[in-house]
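User: I've been trying to design a sequence by hand for this structure and keep getting stuck. Would you show me what you'd pick, starting by listing the structure so we're on the same page?

Assistant: Good idea, let's start from the same input. This is the structure you sent:
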């Protein structure tokens, strides 16, 4: 059984990345997509640097990178940052643009209009290099009171879906797949609309949390050919390790939960999600 971690922040392991990668391979993880957002645009090349440094080493899964400007850093998405992103995105080892999107959860996040502008600009960059996007969307419903006061009636999911409706025609859908709703935590309706636009839905360790009943219901309903799993490491460690630092080796817990939700074996989850990843990212198409 071989698993693929479709979203991990490998650049956040400062002291023990070789050990993290070795544990992932030992746990049956064949491929990891390293997310290139860094701590803002100045560091979004870090994932690509990790891929360049570690690919081909013994005891290391296959590694690919993304690059993007997280919505929390949208105020830094100026012309220079966008030019840098375009250069990174053109590299063949960078297989996606992201994570990008909208986040109205924290009061310190940029204004909604600033986030929306940065999101649209990065969609255009992805279109120019003909690569999928990795979308982050933090629901406004769970925002802290001060953030709700700041963002008012603006809703991250509503705005995201509207922007995708308005700007997705930049892509030639016959030649490029749209991308991933990463760490999906939306409703059945938000899942339906995302799927209609061609997106894949990726589920992380929060799928295993006791109160995530509605999320598991959504995961059970996603068409098999649009399903992915991830860690979002070092965040969102799954049960029974919730609260600890997450890493790619722990993705089997999420896969096991997904198997139970869908009434299939963990081996089937691994096969389905791995095939979906390779379909979405043809450059990774050689079997693990």
């Amino acid at each position: 059984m071989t698993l693929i971690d479709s979203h991990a922040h490998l650049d956040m392991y400062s002291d023990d990345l070789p050990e993290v990668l070795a544990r992932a391979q030992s746990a049956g993880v064949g491929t990891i997509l390293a997310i290139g957002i860094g701590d803002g645009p100045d560091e979004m090349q870090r994932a690509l640097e990790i891929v360049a440094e570690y690919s081909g080493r013994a005891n290391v899964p296959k590694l690919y990178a993304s690059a993007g400007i997280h919505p929390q850093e949208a105020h830094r998405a100026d012309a220079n940052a966008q030019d840098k992103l375009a250069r990174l995105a053109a590299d063949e080892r960078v297989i996606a643009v992201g994570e990008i999107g909208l986040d109205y959860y924290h009061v310190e996040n940029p204004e909604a209009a600033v986030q929306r502008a940065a999101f649209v600009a990065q969609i255009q960059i992805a279109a120019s290099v003909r690569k999928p996007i990795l979308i982050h969307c933090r629901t406004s419903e769970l925002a802290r009171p001060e953030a709700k006061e700041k963002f008012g009636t603006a809703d991250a999911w509503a705005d995201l879906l509207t922007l995708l409706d308005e700007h997705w025609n930049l892509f030639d859908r016959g030649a490029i797949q749209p991308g991933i709703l990463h760490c999906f935590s939306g409703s059945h309706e938000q899942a339906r609309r995302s799927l209609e636009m061609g997106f894949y839905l990726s589920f992380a360790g929060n799928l295993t949390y006791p109160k995530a009943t509605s999320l598991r219901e959504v995961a059970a309903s996603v068409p098999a050919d649009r399903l992915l799993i991830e860690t979002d490491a070092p965040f969102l460690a799954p049960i029974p390790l919730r609260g600890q630092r997450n890493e790619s080796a722990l993705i089997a817990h999420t896969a096991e939960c997904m198997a139970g939700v869908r009434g299939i074996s963990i081996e089937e989850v691994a096969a389905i999600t791995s095939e979906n990843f390779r379909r979405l990212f043809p450059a990774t198409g050689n079997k693990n």
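That's my pick for every position. To get oriented when you compare it with your attempt: The radius of gyration is 18 Å. The mean pLDDT is 94.
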